[in-house]
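Holo prediction — 4-fluoro-L-phenylalanine.
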Amino acid sequence: MGVSRGGFSSRFGFIMAAAGSAVGLGNIWGFPTQTASNGGAAFVLVYLVLAFCLAYPAFMAELLIGRYGQANAVTSLQKMSHNLWQKRFAFMVGFGGIIAAALILSFYGILAGWMMSFAIDPVVRLFGFNDAAQWFVNQSLARNLIFTALFMLLTIFIIRRGVEDGIEKWSKRLMPMLIILLTVLIIYVMSLEGASEGLKAYLQPDLSRVFDADLLISALGQAFFSLSLGTSVMIIYGSYISKKENLVSLGAQVTLIDVSIAFLAGLLIIPAMYVAQAQGVAIFAEDGSLISGSNLVFTVLPSLFDGMGVMGLFVGFAFFVLMTIAALTSSISMLEGPVSYAVERHDMERTKATTYIGLGILVLSIIIVLNISFMLDLVAMISTQYGQPIIAMLCCVFVGWIWYRNSILAEIKQGNDDVENTLFWKIWPWYIKFVCPTAIAAVFIHSL
Ligand code: PFF
């Protein structure tokens, strides 16, 4: 761990930070919504398989690149390159990931701002200001601008403090809170009428849908988004891990936490939808499709909370605080990618780099807010449906085809002496060389 550039002080710190990046709106909002729109348990099953068989190996590639390079994404990839064209290619891939992270943050900050404003609504109503509370839940330019800016300032505040004092400290505080809140909410929703029907829809797969092409594409996209792949984020987090740590097991633990939290979020949201249905809220159209689609958490859940009286105010508050926390531990990782690049490649001071880059991304968010009807989806699509899979695939190509096998082994062996004799080493190199790039490319081309 380079002392001057900072690093995670402990294994727990890294796990919380990387899981914090992975666990976000994608898990608690995206995954349940996709599950509900893609045949329930069939989607869950495919997601689990793809997360462990494709996303985890690609995740390991990014962590390894970073830990080997001990630097930002561009420098780390260039350290693995052997000639000029490979160095140029490394720049394209590393910088592409940094741009993807910045673009994702520019729209993610807007969505996170909505979560913050929905968390304030029940507080305002608790004090009896029901009319004023409407402002927090209705779409408006002023609300979007204010809350996007607030959320970005929070993100900047944490990243300015650096790796150990900012990312690690806050992830260690926020992630346990998130897990506790999620568990309490699940227990509560499970006790309500209609929840068991939701549980059935969530856990009994319709196997005929498992090979549905659209379902496969959505599940793979979701798995990559969830593990923050193709964004330079896991490269930079990998670079802050000590050489004494066993990367294979750290990566597996983070993947397991990420997948488990998505699964738990489904256990909250899908039953909550059926509880709302039992209370008379329309959830599905006649053809079985979701009525509210991606607005699920802003329409169905608040109407469920409304039906609970005063208790609903507390539950609603807890739910949207949970969302805000999840978003924050992800947004800090997105800002760290570009900041580490500016600090290490352009000798900028960390606090300055964080402020300038954070404010630059905020300006982009404001432009999106001003043109929300077409820009929000467009930026999300460019960065997550195109940017992430392409960059993630190129990282696999880098590790599989450009990096020498012996150097990879030497890097993995640090903190894991015995790795040569494990199943991981027998499968993974071959996997990262052939299976991951081909599968990602196939799904990507199909999605076009
Ligand atoms: N993994 C985050 C989520 O599931 O919400 C989103 C994310 C974080 C994407 C960091 C990209 C990134 F660089």
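READOUT: The chain has a mean pLDDT of 92.
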